Amino acid sequence: MEFLSIFVVASVPIVKVLLLGAFGALLATPYLNILPQDARYHLNKLVFSVYTPALVFCNLAQSVSPAKIIDWWFLPVNVIMTFFIGTLLGLIVVKVLKPQPSLERITVACCSSGNVGNLPLLLVPAVCLDSKGLFKQSEVCIQNSLAYVSFGLAITTLILWTYTFHLLKPAQFKERDDLTSANPTIRNVVDSGSKEAQNEELVVMKSFTEEEQFETLELQEFVPQAQAWSDIFRNKMKDWASKFPLGILLNPPNAAVVAAFIVGGIPLFKRSLVGSDAPLRLIQDCLSTLGTAALPSMILLLGGNLTQGSSSGSEKMNASVLASITVVKLVLVPALGLCFVLGASHLGLVPEDPLFRLVLLVQYAMPSAFTIGVIAQLYNMGEQVTIVLFWSYICSVLTTTVWTTLYLWILF
User: Cβ distance 299 to 17 under 8 Å?
Assistant: First the structure.
């Protein structure tokens, strides 16, 4: 197949996403006000809690099996490599450009955390439909591609809400967390002393302001070292467990992935739910109907949310840092990822399925994940991240098309 015809095939899904995204941006404008911020918030909750889990479960449950789980072992390795390569390049950008301390974490996070879940759910199935014979059975291609991407989405969500969540956390939040975990230790130790000393210490501790709490650590000098360290460790574990986002790790998309693996991995459950002869196929059909709303809703939200980036945060983001993040995420990471996947394929670590290899390669060509904006908003850094996401997705219309064209040209 000629390079130009492949370019047309690869550009069609990107142009579809762009047109529907532009329509979503138009609906979000004050002139129409059909998709305002409140509406996007509630639609986003539906996509997150209902549409995406239904889409993920249906496609993954139909395709997964114990044998395929073993065959797909390279997918989580590839997702981890996208974060690893992006982190290294992000640290190099920080070292060379020396941005403001508040932008260092944003730079590394935006370089490392790609949208390897939601956007490939839009792109790869569209390539299956518009591939003009590259993938012979488009329905099977769509089903398998969504299964591959859904499996990668689960790994991505786990990394985003652990590694990226901690990476974006400002230093003052970490210091405050350390103090809140240390102060209960001091109070527990003081409780073992006399009542007079306990009352005096409690009065003193109540008089401390948040900035003066560092001085309370000096009380540990009067505590036996063994008891102090054991109490510190125990309270640190309790504090970590209370703050760790277990609820987010067990969010609806991840729960759908787990449920799909259980159903697909156990033949009795799969025969009951999946297939035209399944006695409970009505449940699968209902979930499939809900899942069809996921992709168009994602695109409309994509356009509506990106309108915030064109007018906010640009004055706070250094132009050189913004350009560097865009080049790293959309040019250097895909180039290094291509070398990694081709090397792994040469060593026989990757299955021969060209669709599987396409999904691996596309994961490197994606712009930064929108989840970064959600996490950054928790720490009042949303404006800077929004402008990065805005320009990243605008530039990805060209870069993702070029990279997808190159991938198809190499694979076929």
Answer: yes
Mention the CATH class of domain 3-172+249-411: mainly alpha
Q: What is the DSSP letter of 36?
A: -
Domain-by-domain residue ranges, the chain? 3-172+249-411, 175-246
Query: How much of the chain exceeds pLDDT 70, in percent?
Result: 74
Give the pLDDT score at 79: 94
The string of pLDDT tens digits covering residues 260-271 is 888 888 888 888
For the stretch 126-132, contacts whose Cβ atoms lie closer than 8 Å and that sit 24 or more positions apart, written own/partner, are: 126/12, 126/13, 126/16, 126/17, 127/9, 127/10, 127/13, 127/358, 127/404, 127/408, 128/355, 130/9, 130/12, 130/13, 131/9, 131/408, 132/5, 132/9
- CA-angle at 112, arms to 319 and 90, nearest 5°: 50
Distance of CA 61 to the CA centre of its chain: 22
Residue 187 has a pLDDT of 42
Give the tokens for residue 2: 């000629």
Find how far residue 175's CA is from the centre of its chain: 26
Residues of the chain with pLDDT under 50: 175-224, 226, 312-315
